[in-house]
Amino acid sequence: MKKQIKALLLLLMATAPTYAQIGGIEDSVNEISDTIRVIFPIILGVIFLVGFLFNAGHFFGENADLKKGITRVLVFVLIAGAVVGIFTYLITLVV
To answer: How far apart are alpha carbons 72 and 31 in whole angstroms?
Structure first.
């Protein structure tokens, strides 16, 4: 019986510091998520701009292929939309 009580006390004392650390971790996660929320639209805008510039060659110039250009832009927009959707879903989760 004494061994069980000692084991229980040891377990309780070992887990007590982890409860004290949760507040600090939560604050850090909130700061990081706030930073990501501010930076993400800027990064996404740069990605859209770079993607358009890479695909602009299909619309203009000597070897212009309108169908290929539109197809690539649509695929790019679908992939970027999926990334934005996943990111938006992850932001709405409560940390």
So the answer is: 37
